Amino acid sequence: ATIERGNTRPKRIPDSAEIRLRMLSTWLSVAAVVLGVALVMGVVVGRG
Question: Greatest CA separation found in the chain?
């Protein structure tokens, strides 16, 4: 599936389910980064 950036297709308003899924994926990635940083900091502090 290729995403065209031209004006060939009218802009479709994303429904609530799409917005919710996008927000969920964003929060999941943020949580994963925070968890990884916390894990590394915990190991470093534990070693020190």
Answer: 59
- Rounded Cα distance between 14 and 18, Å, is 6
Whole-number Cα distances in Å, 15 to 5, 21, 23, 26 = 20, 10, 13, 17
Residue with the two structure tokens 């799409």: 18
pTM of the full structure? 0.52
Distance CA 11, CA 24 (A): 23
CA 16, 10, 25 angle in degrees (round to 5)? Answer: 35
Q: What whole-number distance in Å separates Cα of residue 45 and Cα of residue 48? A: 5
Residue 9: the pLDDT is 63
Single-letter residue type at 7: N
